[in-house]
Amino acid sequence: MLVEAEVEEPVAGPGDVLIEVAAAGVNRADVLQREGHYPSPPGSPAWPGLEVSGTVLEAPELSGFAVGDAVCALLGGGGYAERVAVPAGQVLPVPVGIDLVDAAGLPEVVATVWSNVFLLADLRAGETLLVHGGSSGIGTMAVQLGRVFGARVAVTARSSSKLEACAELGADILIDYTVDDFVERIRAEAGGADVILDVVGGDYLSRNVRALAVNGRIANIASRGGTSSLDLNALMMKRGTIRSTSLRARPADEKAAIVASVRENVWPVIENGAVHPVIGARFPFAEAAAAHELMESSSHIGKILLEV
Ligand SMILES: NC(=O)c1ccc[n+]([C@@H]2O[C@H](COP(=O)([O-])OP(=O)(O)OC[C@H]3O[C@@H](n4cnc5c(N)ncnc54)[C@H](OP(=O)(O)O)[C@@H]3O)[C@@H](O)[C@H]2O)c1
After folding, report:
1. Residues ≥6 apart with Cβ < 8 Å to 90
2. pTM of the full predicted structure?
3. Fold of domain 112-244
4. Could you tell me if the CB of 144 is within 6 A of ligand 1?
5. Would you kindly state where each structural domain of the chain is located, as residue ranges?
């Protein structure tokens, strides 16, 4: 159940920015947290919310932020609230040209895609990127960043309307996984994928290895499909690499390094209009339960936001 409650006023510790929240992004992790499977990490508020946008109420000296600035931030939790305190290293200015509420849909997806697809899997221009769940919040950002940085982008999704949305964002190999085998399609149309962003896990691990090009890299960020088994020989023959990470669990200094890299490399392509947050729905905070129901239905495209 999601119920409104009074909680203690957050207190900004040394190095923290205190934010008056305008909107919070809804993430799959929030659904897992609501179900009791994924509590906030130590040091973060117990209530959900991995990203917000809003206005600075307090900022440490030399943090680069000042009272009244429009910002968005990556959190360990606590974003479903009117106020939140967060280390300054996890705060970003709202990109020029982006609406304050829409900016709540940026920090988690951009940091996740940038850190996994670019920093860990090292996607290069001219390579092929396969994005599973291309129409998800994560997927819509991965498709755009892949295209903007010169990759050929393939996606999987379960309907033609979701695939059309991916095509508009720049995907050019569109795979309805309810109809086609993605392994066959990506091998036939691209000779395999150089990088695969996997939001499924389970039996996708072995299928992803078969879908890889030689020297390919798998960036796994979720395990929704049960236990995975791996044919090590098949991976060896591909000279393949598998990385699996959880952004939320990473320590503050690693999050700060990712956020700094995002600001340097991704903020410019948002500010020049090449990449934008894809917002599927906005709900008032009081309707957070309906927002979660929409996410669980998987009928949305892009991000779901809660507005204070
Ligand atoms: N590890 C990390 O640091 C990290 C960070 C952020 C997010 N994540 C994970 O990334 C995933 C996406 O997050 P989100 O917030 O963007 O959620 P979301 O918008 O709800 O996306 C979930 C997506 O999974 C897709 N999907 C489910 N089963 C699939 C299958 N068998 N084949 C292909 N696609 C499938 C759905 O697409 P269809 O409807 O087309 O099936 C949907 O688009 C979630 O699993 C989340 O937990 C991980």
Report:
1. 73, 74, 75, 107, 252, 255, 256, 259
2. 0.97
3. Rossmann fold (3.40.50)
4. no
5. 16-106+248-307, 112-244
